[in-house]
């Protein structure tokens, strides 16, 4: 779920400006990006290409509105397990990957082993997800927390200074 350890890519101020714009709107035309960062098209294109090759820019996607799609319930699911062997972990990961309602999954340090972000239509849809998951994977304890209000959500990462 996470990238392997590697050295951070060195970015200069122009790279950071380009990345900032792309995080706001990746559909901006190259000419617009170049104008906004005060450079010409070719160097901007070369920098974007280099950052893609380096893995700084992983992919470009469309961000959808969950409520517009009728997905009105967001649950944070806390999972504890007594099983920590490689086989269980592989089956758990496979189960998560086949469930599109799981939009984030993290392995944690501390009392909770995993946290999932699950987006569904309603509580009944969450229960179907839950029943399906526990029928496939043995889990010691599951706690589901319903988000009452999304107060901040962004896909933009903080870009460290040079």
TrEMBL record:
Superkingdom classification of source: Bacteria
Range of residues in the leader sequence: none
PROSITE patterns: HTH_ASNC_2
InterPro entries: ArsR-like_HTH (IPR011991), AsnC-type_HTH_dom (IPR000485), Dimeric_a/b-barrel (IPR011008), Tscrpt_reg_AsnC-like (IPR019888), Tscrpt_reg_AsnC/Lrp_C (IPR019887), WH-like_DNA-bd_sf (IPR036388), WH_DNA-bd_sf (IPR036390)
GO biological process: regulation of DNA-templated transcription; response to amino acid
Keyword Endoplasmic reticulum among record annotations: no
Entry GO MF terms: sequence-specific DNA binding
Keyword vocabulary terms for this entry: DNA-binding, Transcription, Transcription regulation
Official protein name in the record: ArsR family transcriptional regulator
Ranges where the HTH asnC-type domain occurs: 11-72
GO cellular component: a single term: cytosol
């Amino acid at each position: 779920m996470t990238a392997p350890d590697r050295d951070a890519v060195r970015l200069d101020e122009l790279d950071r400006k380009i990345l900032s714009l792309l995080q706001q709107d990746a559909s901006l035309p190259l000419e617009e990006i170049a104008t906004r960062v005060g450079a010409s098209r070719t160097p901007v294109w070369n920098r974007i290409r280099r950052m893609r090759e380096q893995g700084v820019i992983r992919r470009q996607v469309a961000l959808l509105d969950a409520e517009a799609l009728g997905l009105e319930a967001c649950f944070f699911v806390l999972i504890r397990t007594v099983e920590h062997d490689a086989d269980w972990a592989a089956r758990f990961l496979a189960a998560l990957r086949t469930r599109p309602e799981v939009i984030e999954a993290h392995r944690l340090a501390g009392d909770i082993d995993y946290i999932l972000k699950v987006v569904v239509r309603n509580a009944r849809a969450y229960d179907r997800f839950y029943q399906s998951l526990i029928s496939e994977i043995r889990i010691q304890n599951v706690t589901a927390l319903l988000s009452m209000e999304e107060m901040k959500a962004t896909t933009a990462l903080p870009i460290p200074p040079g």
